[in-house]
Amino acid sequence: MADEFAKGFGIFVVAGLGWMTLAGWYRTPSFEGTQLTGAPPEAATVYDQIGLFLEPVLFWFMILGPLTFWILIPIFERARESYAERAQ
User: Fold this and answer.
1) Are 35 and 28 a contacting pair, CB within 8 Å?
2) CB neighbourhood size of 51 (10 A)
3) What do you get for the CA distance between the two ends of the chain, in Å?
4) 69-83: string of b/e by CB count within 10 Å (b at 16+)?
5) DSSP per residue over the chain, as a string?
């Protein structure tokens, strides 16, 4: 179970840092106003479009990745063990 925790935590950290970096670049119009949640600018270049596409992807990967390793995989492992015990 420790390896699932480490994988989920790694996903959380890496995706979270990526999301915070992109949100800081594209969704922080000024430091006096809203930060990380402002309106996105118009995509001027291909790199801006890629960054604006990756931002929500990283956000949801940051949320769903750890939940998968911390909740869903242990539930399926316990269910499989329970099923194996009942089958014997």
Assistant:
1) yes
2) 17
3) 24
4) bbeeeeeeeeeeeee
5) -HHHHHHHHHHHHHHHHHHHHHHHHHS-S-SSS--SSSPPPP--SHHHHHHHHHHHHHHHHHHHHHHIIIIIHHHHHHHHHHHHHHH-
User: What's the pTM value of the predicted model, to 2 decimals?
Assistant: 0.82
**Res. 81 pLDDT band, cuts 50 70 90:** very high
Compute the C-alpha angle 6/26/28, nearest 5°. 95
pLDDT digits (tens, 9 = 90+) for 23-41: 999 988 888 888 888 888 8
Q: Which single residue is written with the structure tokens 């996105």? A: 40
Q: How far apart are CA 26 and CA 86, in angstroms?
A: 54
Task: State both tokens at 24.
Answer: 């800081």
